What we know:
By secondary structure, the chain is of the alpha/beta class. Helices cover about 35% and strands about 15% of the residues.
Amino acid sequence: MQILISTSTFNLDNFSELAEIQKAGIEVKLNPFKTRLTEDQVTELLGTNTIGLIAGLETLNEKVLAAATALKVIARVGTGLDSVDLEAAAKLDITVLNTPDAPTSAVAELTLGHILSLLRNIASTDRQIRNNTWRGQMGSLLETKSVGIVGFGRIGQRVADLVSAFGAKVIVSDPYLQTQDYENCALDKLCQKVDILTLHIPYTESTHNLISAKRIESMKRGSFIINISRGGLVDEDALLQALQSGHIAGAALDCFEQEPYFGPLSKLENVQMTAHMGTYARETRDRMEQEASLLLVKVLRQKEIIK
């Protein structure tokens, strides 16, 4: 029997019951590729003797899960479960868990960092200086902006707290959550009203290209789009055109429909990009890894697979 850890990186010091697991004769196997696994790679690594999976963002569809005949528990290092076929997992009696609280501060702080960098041209000025051009760029203050937050869960609420501290006006769009603190309006209206649009929702079929060409066109000229959530939420072709025309002043993107991404958006000076690293704060990663491993072992014990 084995437990597979498929995340691209994992600090085994965070696996608190590692010694007990190994003493029971269960091997703990790390991702040998050190990157997001393909469907074929994760299928091969799972094999037919993996009882528990500490998962990253690799695709865990019905085909992958059905092939892993010994698999009983998946613990996701992070919040989103859109990479897991939950219906197939339920049908196969595989328990699926996540660590929803741990990433909140890390993702929210990266969002704030991108917003401030866009408004003050930090990244673009840095690139100019490295290319031997010394020219200060005029920016703008966050306190003068209205920030539209799409999705008002843990991360969206934390972003609201952070930008409010700078004096920004916050408007939210979340039909599933009531808030007394901020105006909550339909997405179409939100797009038209705000200076900065930031996304904090999961990816599903219904949210594919949620920020469509039509919605991008409806935004104020000179506004900004931030996506530190999931690739596929923004129509990348429409965003490219809007950035090239200047209708959208800038964008900050941490995730893309296809990753790794080296496409045309990466060639634009008014785009900031990070490598899907919203949770990549050391303290956050440690907590997520600890929580995922504890959850995994707890369920394996509940199912009496291990003692």
